[in-house]
Design goal:
It is built from 15 helices and 14 strands. By secondary structure, it is of the alpha/beta class. It folds into three domains: about 10-40 and about 175-270, Rossmann fold (3-Layer(aba) Sandwich); about 50-170, Rossmann fold (3-Layer(aba) Sandwich), CATH 3.40.50.10090; about 275-370, Orthogonal Bundle (Arc Repressor Mutant, subunit A), CATH 1.10.10. Strands 2-1-7-8 form a four-stranded parallel sheet, sandwiched between helices. Strands 4-3-5-6 form a four-stranded parallel sheet, sandwiched between helices. A four-stranded antiparallel sheet has the order 9-10-11-12. A hairpin with a 2-residue loop joins strand 11 (about 295-300) and strand 12. Helix 2 (about 50-60) packs across helix 3 (about 70-85), helix 8 packs across helix 10 (about 220-230) and helix 14 packs across helix 15. The longest helix is centred in the C-terminal third of the chain and has 17 residues, at about 260-275. The mean pLDDT is about 90.
């Protein structure tokens, strides 16, 4: 691989925090960067009065279970408590509780202040923390949840239905970018397929970009671009999950780190540009950037696909051999397609007719996958 593996590629960067570091890493690898912050440069929009009131409420009674969701949230909370002269009291109070952490960043922040988590999910997803709690008897338990920039009121209501007393602590709220114009410009670049990838380092950034796409009337074009030609590159599974409701496929590295995300792009972008070649059910399937739109090579023969079958193929190619549910495939279909699983079945049938019936496998009650030869 060349010393500048991203030469010739245009990459959108939506980060506000650590943006200079990310832009520098990409440019050193030869990429042309389009920087459009999706969020405020300072995400710590803290309402000191409200936070102190919530903190005092937490301190009024013993806490049975404490849930830490973000590293920056924990640091900001304890820093504010230090300004008020009650940091030691807060740390000691939470230290008596059973502590659950969403992921490694919140774990790191807890340990920095002398607290240790009892459990954290490998997935780093808050939903899995909730599942962990729901499997237990929560009757009479006092649970404190540190919110992660967005309201967790619905999660709190669900835990209350299980018999718990729940207090949420809103340490900060994530605010949108002060100047939305760069984001609007990036959306136009995505819709026109003039960028090869866009990076996301926080789930709220995904929400902000998609909300901006909706507000500018480019929602369908942006979704279609991400489904076909533009890579949505996420720092980890939590960020990637924010794309699921939009039917947008995304990639993320095994380790939720900035360097790992960029390293993945170093491999992914050149491979897509030069062609993706797979052995599928005894055939060689090739997608190449130089071919006409929606054209693939099957054993060297060009096969033109209509939009719906091509969208299904693109979704199956995100992780070749992995099962993709009918629901996810339905979300990947072009806008205007009938919104039912029958539309998915028809698209799969047409794809099989074009590539061969054995190329796409049905996994009963789960979905479909490419019959990749290992």
């Amino acid at each position: 691989m060349s010393e500048q593996p991203l030469t010739g590629f245009r990459i959108g960067v939506t980060a506000a925090r650590r943006a200079e570091e990310q832009v520098s890493l990409l440019e050193r690898r030869g990429a042309e960067v389009v920087h459009a912050p999706a969020l405020s440069v300072d995400p710590n929009q803290i309402d000191e009065v409200a936070l102190r009131a919530a903190t005092e409420q937490v301190l009024t009674q013993p806490v049975d279970i404490f849930v830490a969701t973000t590293g920056i949230g924990m640091k900001s909370w304890f820093t504010a408590a230090a300004r008020w002269g009650i940091e030691d009291r807060l740390v000691a109070h939470l230290g008596d509780a059973e502590i659950l952490a969403r992921g490694p960043k919140s774990v790191g922040a807890l340990r920095r202040f002398g607290l240790r988590e009892l459990w954290a999910p490998e997935s780093e997803k808050f939903e899995d923390v909730l599942d962990h709690l729901r499997r237990r008897d929560l009757t009479g338990k006092r649970i404190v949840v540190q919110e992660h920039g967005q309201s967790l009121s619905m999660a709190a209501h669900a835990l209350r239905r299980s018999g718990a007393e729940v207090t949420t602590v809103a340490v900060y709220r994530v605010e949108g970018a002060e100047d939305p114009e760069p984001m609007f410009a990036l959306i136009e670049e995505i819709a026109a397929r003039r960028v090869d990838a866009v990076t996301f380092t926080a789930a709220p950034a995904v929400a902000a970009l998609m909300e901006a796409a909706v507000s500018t009337g480019h929602r369908d074009e942006v979704v279609t671009a991400f489904q076909a030609d533009v890579i949505a590159s996420c720092v980890g599974p939590v960020t990637a999950a924010a794309f699921e409701m939009w039917g947008v496929p995304s990639i993320f590295p095994d380790r939720s780190r900035l360097a790992a995300m960029i390293k993945q792009l170093e491999v992914e972008l050149p491979s897509r540009a030069t062609g993706t070649s797979l052995e599928v059910a005894g055939h060689t399937l090739l997608l190449h950037g130089d071919l006409d739109e929606r054209t693939v090579l099957l054993d060297g023969v060009a096969v033109k696909l209509s939009p719906a079958p091509f969208a299904v193929l693109q979704a199956l190619l995100v992780n070749p051999g992995t099962v993709v549910s009918r629901r996810d495939l339905l979300g990947a279909l072009p806008s205007g397609t009938a919104g039912s699983e029958h539309a998915v079945e028809m698209a799969v049938a047409r794809l099989r007719a074009a590539l061969g019936t054995r190329c796409i496998q049905t996994v009963v009650k789960r979905g479909y996958r490419l019959a990749v030869t290992t």
